[in-house]
Specification:
With about 140 residues, this protein is mainly β. The protein has no helices and twelve strands. A four-stranded antiparallel sheet has the order 1-2-3-4, with no helix packed on it.
Length: about 140
């Protein structure tokens, strides 16, 4: 199966992959598969670690984003609402929110606790391929 996305953990000790087989996999630095994260119903197009290194976010062709606790392999949050493949996921620098970008042309922001409703911003009516947070200062 094709690998669609790769990300290093913040400390460099793990590598995560997202694949067409609908899984994300966590690999040790020696190349051993440490965990297979299952739950998506479509190819996993995006994987990224949270700044803490304890959580992994995935985005999928099934229009769902999931957050996984790496110590247990448990899915701790599921975010739905996009109308197209979620091909970009990015946690905020403080780890409190997750941004998801989709082929439906939208970006949604989610509270990691799962309690916050997604806030949506339309991006030029074209599909979203990548997204990252800007670490600049806010001007008043």
């Amino acid at each position: 199966e094709e690998v669609r996305s790769i990300a290093y953990s913040p400390d460099g000790s793990y590598l995560a992959t997202g694949s067409d087989d609908r899984t994300a996999r966590l690999w040790g630095s020696e190349g051993t598969c440490r965990a297979v994260l299952e739950g998506h119903c479509g190819a996993v197009w995006s994987v990224t670690f949270f700044p803490s290194g304890q959580l992994l976010a995935t985005g999928s062709m099934d229009e769902i984003s999931r957050v996984w606790r790496l110590s247990t392999g448990e899915c701790v949050a599921i975010f739905s609402g996009h109308l197209g493949c979620i091909c970009s996921v990015a946690p905020s620098p403080d780890g409190s929110h997750l941004a998801t970008g989709s082929w439906d042309g939208s970006v949604r922001l989610w509270g990691v606790s799962g309690a916050d409703e997604g806030e949506q911003a339309q991006i030029s009516g074209r599909h979203m391929q990548t997204f990252s947070w800007h670490r600049g200062r806010r001007s008043e």
